[in-house]
Amino acid sequence: MYLAKVYVTLKTTVNDPQGLTVLATLRNLGFAAATDVRVGKYLEVRIDNPDRSQAEALVNEMCRELLSNPVIEEYRFDLEEMAPEGSATS
Questions:
Q1: Contact 79, 57 (CB under 8 A)
Q2: What's the pLDDT tens digit per position in 38-72?
Q3: Which of 11, 57, 66, 82 is 20 to 30 A away from residue 47, measured at CA?
Q4: CA distance linking residue 37 with residue 71, whole number of Å
Q5: Domain 2-81 carries which CATH code?
């Protein structure tokens, strides 16, 4: 079993009005060192497949078909091996 930690962000060529709003608010709060903000999504997906390459392929397919919009977003993910549910941990 694997845990996929998926990060979805807007492509750099896409305007990010939400990021601009957050940046303006940070500056209004006195955080003058903030120079840019891009807003994205973070998802965790548990994959019940013992084969790492198959799990990676499944996560890629999930991202392409549902979790990201390939026209305006890009994604990356980290895959962590997990102990199967119900197994004893020490």
A1: no
A2: 999 999 999 999 999 999 999 999 999 999 999 99
A3: 11
A4: 20
A5: 3.30.1280.10
